[in-house]
Amino acid sequence: MSTRGTLGGVFASAAVLIIGWQIGAAALGHPATTTSTGPTGATAGSGSNGAPTSGSSGSGSGSPASSTLKDGTFTGASVQTPYGEVQVSIVVASGRISDVATPTLQAYDGRSERINSQAVPLLKREVLQAQSAKVSMISGATFTSRGYLTSLQSALDKAA
């Protein structure tokens, strides 16, 4: 087969996958956009398994933080991922999440450390903006994102 034919097939397959993902995301009521980050090209959007947000991955209710949250510091459950342990704590002031930290962020190898170092700041920014656990997972950091959002939801549940 010619190079031109092979490339045409690759591009056609990619287009079908992208369109399918956008249709699925629209059906779930999630935006089908991604934003580019750092030099490795990790993107906020769907995880590698196609799950667009934490809410659809079963990480909890993801209810928005509002004035129903108690002020204080709340630490979520420690979550074991295949690549390390993740634990999230939140600071709530005036009923809003004012800070998010990761007291435990373990990585078993250098690659996982690099992924975490890029994904965690993005997740923190998204959480502070959304004021909930309903944020986009980080593509290329699916396990870290799931662990982070599961622990975050645990902390939010304690603050409710």
List keywords for this structure.
single chain, Sufe protein. Chain: A, alpha+beta, 160 residues
Number of helices: 3
What is the N-to-C succession of helices and strands? HEEEEEEHEH
Q: Say what the CATH topology is.
A: Sufe protein. Chain: A
Low-pLDDT runs of 5+ residues are 25-66
Summarize the structure.
Residues 34-68 have a biased composition (Low complexity). InterPro entries: FMN-bd. With 160 residues, this protein is of the alpha+beta class.
Task: Explain what you see.
There is one protein chain. The protein is an alpha+beta fold and 160 residues long. It has a single domain, classed as Sufe protein. Chain: A (Alpha-Beta Complex), CATH 3.90.1010. Helices cover 40% and strands 21% of the residues. It contains 3 helices and 7 strands; from the N terminus they run αββββββαβα. Helix 2 packs across helix 3. It is elongated and about 65 Å long.
